[in-house]
């Protein structure tokens, strides 16, 4: 059996694994990456990119239609087949040649096959053809194996061969009727996309629509889905499912309602890709999320690092924040940490230190590409209160900002900021409205930079842009930093 040694072995060539390996090589070490499917992972072929491509045309059409003069120029309807073709190109036609050539150019060795940990610092790679190679790591192994769709144990559901996010992202035809189970990010984005593409969509959710975002933002997306014709069952769970002889799926809910559709999409969260990774060989439980310490080293149930600390985990698999950009941020931190430890140089894990992934706790960013979009960073009012912070939140009507009223006739949106009263800094920001995604980074910088509110008054938003929402939120909060006097729109 052939054997090789590298400084670092990364298992999983999704966006996170690729960035870990690149960072390792940039740091002067050697790296091999193990991939069983496509280099680029879920994000490139079945998640971020293709789903955003499914959503983009309808958003552009809505934008044009909200300007009466420009709307005159729109003479037809959305062409679903053309949307799917454009989506295909954003999924690189499910061919990873482009990403492989990037990896090779970056100096990373690619080992195709299933990676399994067989001993400390040792990984066996089994190719689809049955060949096995054993590779050794001088310094570290990084698990970046991501996650897969979780299918809940609803009687009959698996037998219906339901869609998961993979099929929703890569479908080559739009079903006439689509039932979606799950009211989280995948459920709402795909309800937005497929209703715009012409499907009659029913959305079933046990815990409401977007339960983890600010309630005012979730309410606007819920109203927009209803306006788009999506039938919502927001507080009931599926009880059983079956596919009949004609191919139709019957989903019966806990309240006895039965929904009939051509396809059913299960969007009920994720499960870690750790079932066939050899975790049992190192005392960890296959199928579990990997727990990590502050330097992203894997720890056991008691919190002790595995072995002498040779095993790290980054990205979805450690469950800190299931988002590509947060995983890539972890990748930069873990790559630099491994290089520093290999060289014996200082590892700075202090908050916001070079090797810490502090933003995972305090400043996770997310854009939900529903229509309207939701862009959020940091803590919601509820999350901040639950963590015991003394906070005050204010909201403002984005539609009342000059830039927004110019952007589209009848523009509707809303924003909020959550302020840590004791430090007078922002800890959370949420905005909902059409085309708000690009407003997010200013808030992220304010939170990460811990910019005091009195200084934010000097960050003057250009007129007439939607960024003037900042000025309005500050005015609503009140210039006296510690004022608790309620202002119009404040709570
Ligand atoms: C529908 C959908 C839309 C999304 N949209 C967004 C978005 O717009 N923005 C955003 O930030 N996030 C989005 N996400 C989340 C994002 O896709 C994930 O956070 C991201 O893909 C995680 O990257 P990763 O590298 O950790 O894992 P993955 O992308 O899952 O990659 C892991 C890789 O490891 C490989 N692998 C697994 N086990 C093994 C093994 N034992 N041996 C060898 N290889 C292995 C897999 O084949 C895969 O290629 C979306 C998710 C879904 C489901
Ligand atoms: N734009 C983006 O950033 C983007 C887009 C899509 C996905 N993602 C990420 O991908 C991950 C997965 O998304 P998701 O929507 O699958 O998960 P999610 O956690 O956002 O939502 C899952 C939903 O399913 C419901 N649910 C769970 N178990 C259920 C059951 N047994 N029966 C009925 N309902 C059940 C939950 O209440 C929840 O509302 C998320 O972490 C998300 O951040 C990000």
TrEMBL record:
SUPFAM superfamilies: FAD/NAD(P)-binding domain (SSF51905), FAD/NAD-linked reductases, dimerisation (C-terminal) domain (SSF55424). FAD binds at residues 52, 115, 145-147, 316. Keywords: FAD, Flavoprotein, NAD, Nucleotide-binding. Binds 1 FAD per subunit. One of its GO terms (biological process) is 2-oxoglutarate metabolic process. Its cofactor is FAD. GO terms for molecular function: dihydrolipoyl dehydrogenase (NADH) activity; flavin adenine dinucleotide binding. The keyword Magnesium does not apply. Disulfide bonds join 43-48. This is Pyridine nucleotide-disulfide oxidoreductase. It comes from Aeromicrobium yanjiei.
